[in-house]
Amino acid sequence: MQGIGTSPGIGMGKIFLYIEPKIEIQREDIQDIEGELARLEDGMNTAKAEIHNLYENTLEKMGKDKAEIFMAHKMMLEDPEFIDGIKQKISSEGVNAEWAIKETADMFISLFENIEDEYLRARAADLKDVSNRLLRVLLNVESVDLASIDEDSIIVAEDLTPSDTAEMNKDKVVGFITELGGRTSHTSIIARTLEIPAIAGVKDATSSVRHGDYMIIDGSTGEAFINPSEDIIKSYRKKLEDIREFKEKLKSVIGEKTISKDGHRVELAGNIGTPSDIDKVLENDGEGVGLFRTEFLYMDKDRLPTEEEQFNAYREVAEKLGDRPLVIRTLDVGGDKEIPYLNLPKEMNPFLGYRAIRLCLDRVDIFKTQLRAIYRASKYGNIKIMFPMISNIQEVRNAKKIAAEVREELKKENIPFAEDVELGIMVEIPAVAVHSQAFAKEVDFFSLGTNDLIQYTVAVDRGNQTISKLYNQYHPAVLRLIKMTIDNGHKEGIWVGMCGEVAGDEKLIPVLLGMGLDEFSMSASSILKSRYLIKNTSKEEIKSMVDTILDLPTAEDVEEFIDKHILS
User: Fold this and answer.
1) Residues with catalytic annotation?
2) Fewer CB atoms inside 10 Å of the end CB: C or N, the chain?
3) Adjacent-strand bridge partners of 317
């Protein structure tokens, strides 16, 4: 059985086949409209109480950042657009609450699933979770008790909702396999947080296994073995032991600087989306934050965040980091990342549309409010500002001009801020990488956003599972653009970092080190492993291989070369 490895590690245990109870919804004509609306209200109150219990449970076991998803679920049950839509259907069409919920939820889920952005598309799962919970309450349908799992088990399911993962017995679940989802699905994110191996995108997984059979999964390769031979079991027990020993070794690099075997110093930072994420970065001894995705301050709201709200969020992270750098990316929404209150136009190709810096330069009021908040917070730490989705030099100059205006305004108001805040750009569009020497004369740093750089370079929607194999970080053209950007940045005396998924890729970290990358920013759980790898790698040794790697014809050749000559 083969899928997409979304959370690394080895899982060995019995299959727990999770089949959600089928909820059959029939349309019924209702005479007592007021009674049906009251019934809906009672169901919503029960569902909210259940969600509150899940929030408390998750807060205790996984922390505030993971518990917040259930606050979002509660907000969905209070969202006027969603709930009023259900009530309107009951009132105007005289239908039962269950039918109204299904019809309204299906409409919104369809909207989410057609969004290009993979993270936001995964939010459709949250709405399914909320609406299914409400339907189960109204229909008195019992859900499968994942908390009762009492032996090492691998859950095989079509998909797992946030509620499923919150309720399961985490001490006994040693792996997930799902038919749906990808790296940014809720299941995958939770699996990585809990360090549980996971595989997604396994077609017909639930119909290919039997409850109680023995299984081994490899979350790194995406391989799964059903009732494996004794030889395979022995082999994977050895791998599991090696992983445990390696985790112990990682503790030895806590508190150390990230210096290669031949004395080259780099910086290992973490990517965060909310202020609470900083705690994981610090727990894993991150040397800073290379990407603070500020759009999450704007989402799940019915209005723009105020300057004060933003200032408090940035200040909180800056103070926790102290002298360590905090790179704040300015607002990266628009197009596919819908924020209803902005009333953005619908677009045929949102990834190439009205978004990020294009939106901010157009809506200077929004941009200035954010920049004021960032500059005010700069007094409390080592903050740097990064502009996303840059495609031409005039955009950089316009953004810098607005930043200068903000600084002048703050001076006139006698509001303190740091005078030396660095301004940089994300390099995520091939045109910028190709023209990077000219861009380097305009900014203080580059940060390679490889998630978009790859998809724009190879013309593959990274969220499209049908062509996902074509989205490949080992593509020689992608690596050439990365090397070109690093070289041109250094020629002009600026530092070059990376904040995309590639920065934490164990196979590419030595290659990026050899190319001269100065800063690697990744998920918190990858930091110590990356430091250990860099400390045991000679930069000059890899540097001598870079030209050979870039001359290879295919991504497969690149990966094979790394496996054979660098990682062996």
Assistant:
1) 186, 499
2) C
3) none
Sign of CA dihedral 365, 370, 375, 379: positive
**For the segment 91-134, what is each residue's pLDDT rounded down to a tens digit?**
999 999 999 999 999 888 877 666 555 555 666 778 888 898 89
20: tokens are 């959600």
Q: Enter the pTM of the model.
A: 0.73
Question: Is the distance from CB of 242 to CB of 8 less than 8 angstroms?
Answer: no
Q: Are 538 and 261 in contact (CB under 8 A)?
A: yes
| 535 to 47, 262, 296, 427, 531: CA distances (angstroms) | 50, 9, 34, 27, 6
With b meaning 16 or more CB within 10 Å and e meaning fewer, what string describes 170-195?
bebbbbbbbbbbbbbbbbbbbbbbbe
427: left (phi > 0), else alpha (psi -120 to 50), else beta? beta
User: In the predicted model, what is the mean pLDDT of residues 472-499?
Assistant: 97
Q: What is the pLDDT of residues 504-517, one digit of tens each?
A: 999 999 999 999 99
Paired tokens of 251:
């503790």
Distance CA 130, CA 124 (A): 10
- In this prediction, residue 339 carries a pLDDT of 72
Instruction: Take residue 205 and report the two structure tokens written for it.
Output: 């997984």
CA gap 459, 242 in Å, rounded: 39
